[in-house]
Amino acid sequence: MKKLVLSICILCAFTTFSQKQAEVNLELHDGNIIKGTASFNDIDLTTSYGKLIIPVSKVGNIKIGYGKDKSAADKAMSYIKLLNGSNNDEVRKSAYADLVKMGLKALSALEDHYADPKNIVESEYTGDFTIDNAYEEIKTNNNITETSTSEDVVTIDNSYTMGGIYNFTKLDVKTEYGTLNIPKEKIKSIDIFVSSGTGGEQLFKLMGNKNISGNQNGGWYKTGITLKAGQKFSMSASGEITLASLSNAVYKPDGSTKASGATDYTGGDYEGASTYATYGMLVYKIGEGSYDNLKAGAKFTGTAKTSGMLYLSVYETVFNANNKGSYNVKVTVNK
């Protein structure tokens, strides 16, 4: 018995040790945003190709899918059949209300219904209690967009995505108002930021189709590096980004550019150039609430003017998701 108790204690200690504290930004299906900290083990993702264990420090975002539940799907399908076959308005009204009440749990059944060609038939019913209206109401009520899927989608290293099922039931988030226990089905997406400390050298990849300063949704890459006021740090960057918002011109991190079809770059950072950032340039800010677009360019050495998290982005006031390419950025922080 003593050996068994000792083994359990060792296992619990290992589990606790393996957890990492992360800053999180949760978007809920009802539109609310919750910010705080949470403890994570590595991300256990079951995919069509097998199970993946992804280090949480490599994960930037998890979009939570609406899932597939067979028992719920069977229940939803019974309401769908009533809406598809009955001409009695009271029966349809009741089935419609029950289907909408199921919310996200009904979506997979509705999608299966639409995927079956034999269900595409003309209906003589002209009222409001239709399958199409129920489907749209469920999506509207839960902020479901064209990019939403039944699977959970994990973004790795800010570059790669993998779909599957992230196996958790709820997330405990510590906020300034206390700890909130948030069920998985209430969560639309989770931004995860694991702090990497205050020293050392790290590499980051800024994507042209996301990390643009004018992008209000994830435009600034949160490095996880915490700087202290007066701390020295440096950056170097390489790569190319094509900005569709600027006539598909190609840019380098120093802001130099060439027109579409041209061979030579023009402009760029140089001694005596303006202290203000130019389009396509690597920029940074310290602290989430900062509105600065501080110039970094291809090479930068400086001192933090304030304390806070280091954010990186590509300067452009207009965001276009058709941008292409990326910048590779190395950040070195003096301990």
Provide an overview of this structure:
- Mean pLDDT is 87; it is low at 1-17.
- The chain has 335 residues and is an alpha+beta fold.
- The chain has an 8-stranded antiparallel β-sheet, with no helix packed on it. Strands 11, 13, 14, 15, 18 and 20 form a 6-stranded antiparallel β-sheet that branches.
- The longest helix has 17 residues, at 2-18.
- It has 5 helices and 20 strands.
- The two termini are 48 Å apart.
- The protein is 20% helix and 37% strand.
Brief summary of the model shown:
By secondary structure, the chain is α+β, with helices and mostly antiparallel strands.
Overall pLDDT? 87
| CATH-defined fold name of the largest domain | Jelly Rolls
Structure classification: alpha+beta
Q: Give the CATH level 1 class of the largest domain.
A: Mainly Beta
Please tell me what the overall shape is.
elongated
Strand order of the largest sheet: 2-1-10-5-6-7-3-4
Question: What's the number of helices?
Answer: 5
Strand count, sense and barrel status of the largest sheet are: 8 strands, antiparallel
The helix-strand sequence is HEEEEEHHHHEEEEEEEEEEEEEEE
* CATH homologous group name of the largest domain: Galactose-binding lectin
% residues in beta strands: 35-45%
The proportion of residues forming helix, as a percent range, comes to 10-25%
Global Rg: 25 Å
List the helices and strands and how they pair.
Elements: H1 2-18, E1 20-28, E2 33-40, E3 43-47, E4 50-54, E5 59-63, H2 70-85, H3 89-102, H4 107-115, H5 131-141, E6 152-156, E7 160-166, E8 170-175, E9 178-183, E10 187-193, E11 200-207, E12 221-227, E13 232-243, E14 249-251, E15 257-258, E16 282-286, E17 294-295, E18 299-303, E19 308-314, E20 324-333
Helix pairs in contact: 2-3, 2-4, 3-5
